[in-house]
Amino acid sequence: MMNAPKWFRIVLLAATFLFLVIFPMRVEFAQPIFYYVGIVFIYSFLGYLILLGGDKRFDERFHEKWVVRRQQPRWKNTLRMGVRCAVIILAVVSFGQFAANGMTPVDIFNELSLGILTFLSFFIVAISWVAGYASWYENEKRYDRIDLQKQKQQHEKSH
Length: 159
Hints:
Blueprint: H1 6-26, H2 32-52, H3 54-69, H4 74-101, H5 105-111, H6 114-158
Helix pairs in contact: 1-2, 2-4, 3-6, 4-6
């Protein structure tokens, strides 16, 4: 998506923002303030990336960290990225349930049967494992792309 023209990214950002602001007018939310605060945080970050070119700074930080992390065993990185994915899944679901239904994670836990909790646990672990494994390859591709860009810049400076 970051390769799309800047005007397209801005239009897409504005359109999705309008949809997310208008959406609660059609659907009842238990905690609308948290929904709107979440939108402001997410869109502030996305606006920073799209309008101010923050993705270049993220690429630089990523490149520095991945140089070290790629030397570590693959299982360690896969586990780290899988756990990160599981935390994100649980945070998004918890936030969504709290904003829409007013349910805390404890309420959700108490509402579900043991069988459903077991299934969801295995499901989240499986999804996280696949995401962690895929993240390794995606990070390698990103590292190679950034490394190639740096090499081109150094080559252009030397000539």
